[in-house]
Write a structure and sequence with these properties.
With about 140 residues, the protein is of the alpha/beta class. Helices cover about 55% and strands about 10% of the residues.
Length: about 140
């Protein structure tokens, strides 16, 4: 099973040494070893945008090059816009990238690994699956 890994999980693994994220980092490591990780270009861009130090940027860019970008299709953008409209009708404001992640995960029928609580709100109205720590 492939899993679309959200930016916050990558950030926990790459930047944070906080023990409260240890379980998520372990899951990411397990998914990497199983070759089950998916990443899309906008997530890669978010990760790389957090590094103003060119040397650190290049190191991260090199590490992330191991993971091929999963293609984002034109229909994914349309579905993300539809998801945005559905959520807004229910009073839920989502970011464009979050809803694009939702659209890609629906198209690929794969869960999303995230600690972003917004995805729990999206899941109430969108046909997304979240990867559960209990699943691991």
């Amino acid at each position: 099973m492939k899993v679309l890994v959200d930016t916050c999980i990558w950030s926990h693994a790459l930047r944070s040494k906080k023990p409260e994220f240890a379980a998520e980092v372990k899951i990411l490591e397990a998914l990497i070893s199983e070759d089950s990780v998916l990443i899309i270009g906008p997530i890669r861009q978010e990760l790389l945008s957090g590094y103003s130090d060119l040397a650190k940027f290049e190191i991260l860019c090199s590490k992330l090059s191991y993971f091929q970008n999963t293609a984002v299709m034109d229909d994914d953008y349309i579905l993300a816009a539809k998801f945005n409209n559905q959520c807004r009708q229910k009073g839920i404001q989502g970011s464009h990238i979050d809803l694009l992640i939702c659209a890609v995960s629906v198209r690929l029928n794969c869960p999303i690994l995230t600690t972003d609580k917004d995805f729990g709100f999206y899941q109430q109205y969108l046909p997304i699956k979240l990867f559960s720590i209990q699943t691991a």
